[in-house]
Amino acid sequence: PAPVKTGPGTDHAADDPFTADRTNWFRQDRFGMFIHFGAYSNLEGEYKRPDGSVCRDAEWIKRQCDIPMDAYEKQAQGFNPADFDAKAVVKAAKDAGMKYIVITSKHHEGYAMWPTKVNDWNLRDHSSFDKNRDILAELKKASDDAGIKLGFYYSIWDWHDKDFADPATFPKYEKRMYAQLKELVDNYDPALLWFDGEWDTDNPHNPWTSKDGEKLEAYLRGLNPDLVINNRVGKRRVVDGDYGTPEQEIPGAPVDGQLWESCMTLNGHWGYARYDEDWKSAQTLTRNLLSTTSRSGNYLLNVGPDARGRVPQPSVDRLKQMGDWLRTAGQGNAVFGARYGGLVEEPAWGSVSRKGDKLYAAVTQWPAAGGSLHLKARTEFKVTSARVLGSGQKVTVTKAGDGYDIKPSGAATNATATVVELSVDPGP
Ligand code: FHN
């Protein structure tokens, strides 16, 4: 393939040209599924204390509800996600148009969701689950069969491992962590590792530094040079790893020359919380995806399976609606393989992404009848034609002042967004 440009105006960090090849798929795919699934899921967001009081949280429930470790281990013993259906999870991702999946292999609780040999705090050795099953292996096979890439979230911060909290013994924990990561890379061949918990809030002793992160990153690249690694291996400096990881927000503008991915929940929690019915609409979720793409970012949208391993139906329904919109009339071209518009300023009425010689203006606020939408040009370019995807609506595009006016004929609009495809000649 042609050498990929790096630096401002591209998706690549100026000082990280070799990243280009490794992250090509990541940059094209734009849209992934995050899965938060662990021993916390077994509580489904609620813990009944011995005194009868109820405490609520999701993946942080052990810490936020001050559950003693022995009580937490006891509840985990009853964890039995027998209904976890990897094919159904992958189908839900595919139906959404998602191209990759990142599942929590180990969250801060330290509980490994695979049969690790490093300790017995894991889904095979400490649960009521079928000891012959391996959900990460099931998900890997289903992902491979469906042509979807699989990545693993791994928390550096570990509430269960006693050596984590003591600087004198932290190296022992670090050794176990390296061994677990080697298991994950060797046994499941993930495309991506999503680190988290490289910081600590209650544990000032955690001596983890960016230097440790860089050492870990070098080790992992030695295991597999194609691994895409996020920036949470160090103290979340953007240049650590391959891409930045804003969370629950869409950065205000593309960070020219940087690659990033915004992770968000579908409701109010990462892990499953039975009481949380605050589901975002498919319209909001699709607009988020269009907006992140228009700023050269990826969108990692989360689902939290329940204690039996089932993805909540409201999540599945919204993901299907997103995929249906993306598959309509090529509207997905505004996302897949697309990036920061570059030629125009971001408008207030929507977002603009670019794919080759096409600009995709995703309109979310049409003007009153007779009005038009203005696109302010950042550089000289020509519009050679324009069409609305997904409807018979006509638009005229005319040079106007510092850019172009898009004038719709008639008022037909698309509840989620109306995509106007502009063929452009970007000039020399
Ligand atoms: O503490 C975690 C949290 O539980 C969740 O996993 C998010 C997802 O990005 N990461 C941390 C908070 O930044």
Describe, in plain words, how this protein is organized in 3D.
- The protein contains ten helices and 17 strands.
- It has helices at 19-22, 24-29, 61-64, 69-77, 86-96, 135-146, 170-188, 210-223, 282-294, 313-326; strands at residues 31-35, 46-48, 54-56, 100-106, 149-155, 192-196, 228-229, 260-265, 297-303, 339-340, 350-355, 358-363, 373-376, 382-388, 394-400, 403-409, 418-425.
- Strands 7-6-5-4-1-9-8 form a seven-stranded parallel β-sheet. Strands 10-11-12-17-14 form a five-stranded antiparallel β-sheet. A three-stranded antiparallel β-sheet has the order 13-16-15, with no helix packed on it.
- The model has no long low-confidence stretch (mean pLDDT 91).
- Bound molecules: ligand FHN.
- The site of ligand FHN has 6 residues, from loops.
* Biggest β-sheet: strands ordered side by side in the sheet: 7-6-5-4-1-9-8
Could you estimate the helical fraction of the residues in percent? 10-25%
- Report the count of strand segments: 17
Contiguous runs where pLDDT drops below 50 for at least 5 residues: none
Compute the average pLDDT.
Answer: 91
What can be said about the biggest beta sheet? 7 strands, parallel
Please write the string of helix (H) and strand (E) elements: HHEEEHHHEHEHEHEEHEHEEEEEEEE
Question: Which ligands accompany this protein?
Answer: ligand FHN
User: What best-fitting shape do the alpha-carbon axes yield?
Assistant: globular
Helix run count: 10
Family: Belongs to the glycosyl hydrolase 29 family.
Organism: Streptomyces kanamyceticus
Function: Alpha-L-fucosidase is responsible for hydrolyzing the alpha-1,6-linked fucose joined to the reducing-end N-acetylglucosamine of the carbohydrate moieties of glycoproteins.
Keywords: Glycosidase, Hydrolase, Signal
